[in-house]
Automatic annotation (TrEMBL):
UniProt superkingdom: Bacteria
Name under which the protein is recorded: Lactose phosphotransferase system repressor
SUPFAM superfamilies: NagB/RpiA/CoA transferase-like, Winged helix' DNA-binding domain
Organism of derivation: Dictyobacter kobayashii
InterPro entries in UniProt: Carb_Metab_HTH_regulators, DeoR-like_C, DeoR_HTH, NagB/RpiA_transferase-like, Tscrpt_reg_HTH_DeoR_CS, WH-like_DNA-bd_sf, WH_DNA-bd_sf
Residues covered by the HTH deoR-type domain: 3-58
GO MF assignments: DNA binding; DNA-binding transcription factor activity
Alphabetically ordered keywords of this record: DNA-binding, Repressor, Transcription, Transcription regulation
């Protein structure tokens, strides 16, 4: 079997099963462990999968903030509207960066009164027009591709906060790996946001569930809520429920 055929087989199995083991591929493809290791490494370098001990997991699709912002996505709006309903008057809320979290800012009812602390430039700009939300913007180095402030000043400011709720921007969630990111720079900021909030809300579409990225933010039990869409298979959600996470399937 040619290398291209082997790698196509590996990718197809990964999509079908959600994870693959190197030992299984050796038997199925009748090749050496070294051959499978090279194939998995090449696919990981191409950004197609995430290498883990003994095999690989799916990797979430990567795109720029601008591309994600301009995607027509009614599912994202539905998820954001459901997540915004978790906000109560008088709360102190941390809002992370990300297009879904930004959409939550758009969906906060105009009569809701709360304080929002954010490192996201788009979130701050949107809430500047909200009549009853007090906005505190965390200062630091601007990470342009995320439209977010990061770095030591952001982390130190977060450590002075005790928030009721944190809306966390998600790249990848996996029951075994936890919350992970493709960029180390954002990990420390997200980790501190989680630590400083009484409850943590992950908002994500089904495509990011069961995927992994190179850098670990926190284990899944750091989450209080997972808000996702109704297309998500109940079998996929079961491991999250078993960890004590309250799973909310947003309905339009």
């Amino acid at each position: 079997m040619l290398k291209e055929e082997r790698q196509r087989y590996i990718v197809n199995r990964l999509h079908q099963e959600g994870k693959i083991l190197g030992t299984d591929l050796v038997v199925q493809l009748k090749v050496s462990e070294d051959t499978i290791r090279r194939d998995l490494n090449e696919l990981a370098e191409a950004g197609i999968l995430q290498r883990v001990h003994g095999g690989a997991l799916p990797r979430a699709r990567s795109s720029s903030y601008e591309e994600r912002q301009h995607e027509e996505n009614s599912t994202k709006i539905t998820i954001a509207r459901t997540a915004a309903s978790l906000i109560h008057d008088g709360q102190v809320i941390i809002m992370d960066s990300g297009t879904t979290v930004h959409e939550i800012a758009n969906q906060i009812p105009l009569n809701r009164q709360a304080t929002v602390i954010t490192n996201s430039i788009p979130v701050a700009a949107t809430l500047a027009l909200h009549p009853n939300i007090e906005v505190q913007v965390l200062g630091g180095k601007l990470k342009k591709d995320a439209q977010a402030m990061i770095g030591v000043p952001v982390i130190e400011a977060l450590k002075q906060i005790r928030a009721d709720l944190c809306f966390l921007g998600i790249c990848s969630l996996h029951p075994e790996i936890g919350i992970s990111m493709p960029d180390m720079e954002e990990v420390y900021t997200k980790r501190t946001m989680i630590e400083q909030a009484a409850e943590v809300v992950a908002v994500t579409e089904a495509a990011k569930l069961g995927t992994a990225a190179p850098y670990i933010v926190a284990p899944l039990n750091a989450l209080t809520y997972l808000v996702t869409d109704t297309s998500t298979d109940e079998g996929m959600l079961a491991p999250y429920r078993q960890l004590g996470i309250q799973v909310i399937r947003a309905e339009s």
